[in-house]
Amino acid sequence: MEKKVKIAAIGPPRRMAALKSVGVRVFEVEDGASGDEKLRELAGDDALSIIFLDETTAENIGVNLISSVREETGKIIMAIPSYEGSEGVTERWLKEAMEHSIGVDLITD
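and the corresponding structure tokens:
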């Protein structure tokens, strides 16, 4: 039998509506402190495989906590742009991860 992938998203209510409409479990937060708490809570949910974070929420939570949760749980945690467009968080994190792991930024033109 195929394992169902469970997905959650954390972010401000106005930015989570589209994800909610396609069946993603949405957890609405208004600030970074609430985002920290919710991420820690969801990290312990073995049924979840993927956690999306609104870019602003991800930036408020901080890369250190997000990296720590990724390493401890093996969950995929990804910052996603809102309907208003990207703030560049995901690209910046990808560049930093690439530079850290291989010593070269392959993304910048």
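(Above: one complete record from the training split.) The chain is about 50% helix and 20% strand.
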